[in-house]
Amino acid sequence: MMQSRKNKIFRPVNQQTVIEDAVLRAIIAKKLKLLRKLEHLSQTELAGLVGCQQAGIARIEKGRVLPSLYTLIRIAKAFNRQLEVKFVENP
């Protein structure tokens, strides 16, 4: 199967970026699940606020997918929060 040009540019291409992608998915998964439980929301309720399906929230919480920036912004708005992105120097 031939990959599109977009996939070649934005998909992990080496072992380090694959690991970084997995770590990022795990961090987002843990934080989303914690925040959702603190707000006493079900996955279905959160999905309704975000404008997606419950299965999408479940995949994010299980660390199976890395949500888009647009999805992260919608999730932040559902919790009445702002999404913050930081660029910090590597140690």
Question: What does this protein structure show overall?
Answer:
The chain is an all-alpha fold. The chain has one domain: Orthogonal Bundle (434 Repressor (Amino-terminal Domain)). Helix content is 62%, strand content 0%. Helix 3 crosses helix 4. The longest helix is centred in the first third of the chain and has 24 residues, at 15-38. It starts with a helix and ends in a 13-residue tail after the last helix. Mean pLDDT is 88; it is low at 1-5.
Could you name the key traits of this structure?
91 residues; mainly alpha; 434 Repressor (Amino-terminal Domain); 62% helix
- Look at the structure and give the mean pLDDT: 88
Number of structurally distinct domains: 1
Percent in strands = under 5%
DSSP helical segment count? 5
CATH topology-level fold name? 434 Repressor (Amino-terminal Domain)
Short structural description:
By secondary structure, the chain is mainly α. It has helices at residues 5-10, 15-38, 43-50, 54-61, 69-78.
Describe the protein's topology.
Blueprint: H1 5-10, H2 15-38, H3 43-50, H4 54-61, H5 69-78
